[in-house]
Design a protein that fits this description.
82% helix; 6 helices; globular; Serine Threonine Protein Phosphatase 5, Tetratricopeptide repeat
């Protein structure tokens, strides 16, 4: 909880910081607060679709929540965003997770 408190304090100073929001979402996942994590990831990607790292974590979370179709959609969006950004590493990671889920 201390980590969450520190991240939230930083977010009060800079509420649009995607790195901090992403970190907070990951902390929520550790505590089983999946709905809160999902909301943060979705907010990040809605406001900043080029924040590539959140696609993988959102889709994995959706898999865990047994929302396979929605997870597939986010993997596809993430692969497209990674390709546009020229981030081959992220693209490969997303594609691997996507293929593992689909096939």
């Amino acid at each position: 909880m201390e980590r969450i408190s520190r991240i939230q304090a930083f977010l009060e100073q800079n509420p649009g910081d995607n790195f901090l929001r992403h970190a907070l979402a990951l902390e929520y996942i550790k505590l089983g607060r999946d709905a809160e994590a999902r909301s943060l990831f979705e907010a990040i990607l809605t406001q900043s679709p080029d924040y590539i790292g959140s696609y993988y974590h959102l889709a994995k979370l959706l898999e865990k929540m047994q929302e396979t179709a929605t997870a597939i959609t986010w993997y596809e969006k993430g692969m497209q965003a990674a390709k546009q950004a020229g981030d081959q590493h992220a693209y490969n990671e997303l594609q691997g997770a996507y293929e593992e889920l689909v096939y």
